[in-house]
Amino acid sequence: MAKFNAREAGVGLIVPALVIGVWQLVSMKGWVNPQMLPSPLAVLERWIAYLLPVQPYSPEQGSWLLWAVSGELIVDALGSLYRVLVGFAIGAALALPLGLVMGASQTVYAWLNPLMQLLRPIPPIAYIPLSILWFGLGNPPAIFLIVLGAFFPVLMNTIAGVRQVDSIYLRAARNLGASGATLFVRVILPAAVPYILSGVRIGIGTAFIVVIVSEMIAVNNGLGFRILEAREYFWSDKIMAGMITIGLIGLIIDTAVNQLNNHLLRWHRGLEN
């Protein structure tokens, strides 16, 4: 697995630090309306208030730990993360086997590809009216939209991965007497893994985009809902606090997926450790 590189991480923080510094300078100089663009310190203050529990702790409330994680930010972040993970898991579980079959079988590909190409350009947001009509309000329509958002990146990358397997590998395996099942499991699937993981990474990013939109429409909690609520009251600092939280969660998940990618593909890159 790729080791943590402190120097690389430090270099990566330079640009965000410069952006925050310029942002704070612009705010201090009064060049922008603070209601339109609050200062980083104001956003940080709101983010901390958003993170902390609303009510002071009382022993009658029960566990201190449950009280400590009862802040709006934690509850909203967990709600959004739950929808993303469930929706992505369902979407990927549907897309992966279908993509493997479509990639491996020209007949199945010929039958299903026109339908997939017809549905793929339709953005999940376009399904919002139907999702509410079919599932009502709450988690089901939001998860349905996330499934759609995650499904096609994983599907298309899986198909591409299977169809791009080098014919040299296939001929070599056949010459060694590999059966069809062995050829698929031991050659085609491992060779397609880089494409599949790329689809997973794109699918998770799409799922985050969709969950924020769906929470603004169909549910009454989550980061998307809270951003929309803040817009109603013109709390621009809370809007930005929610946006930054989304970015941080996305960064953490993307880093974890990238580390998993590096670990699973160390053979592909010629790494032993």
The CATH H-level homologous superfamily: MetI-like
Helix-strand string = HHHHHHHHHHHH
User: Helical proportion?
Assistant: over 70%
Instruction: Write down how many β-strands occur, each being a DSSP E stretch of 2 or more residues.
Output: 0
Radius of gyration: 23 Å
CATH class: Mainly Alpha
- Mean pLDDT across every amino acid position: 83
Membrane topology: Multi-pass membrane protein
Pfam families: BPD_transp_1 (PF00528)
Family: Belongs to the binding-protein-dependent transport system permease family.
InterPro entries: MetI-like, MetI-like_sf
Summarize the structure.
Helices cover 75% and strands 0% of the residues. By secondary structure, the protein is mostly helical.
Describe this structure in words.
The chain is mainly α and 273 residues long. The chain has one domain (73-265): MetI-like fold. Helices cover 75% and strands 0% of the residues. The protein has twelve helices and no strands. It has helices spanning 6-12, 14-29, 40-51, 64-68, 72-104, 106-119, 128-135, 139-163, 167-175, 180-217, 223-232, 236-264. Helix 5 (72-104) packs antiparallel against helix 10. The longest helix is centred in the last third of the chain and has 38 residues, at 180-217.
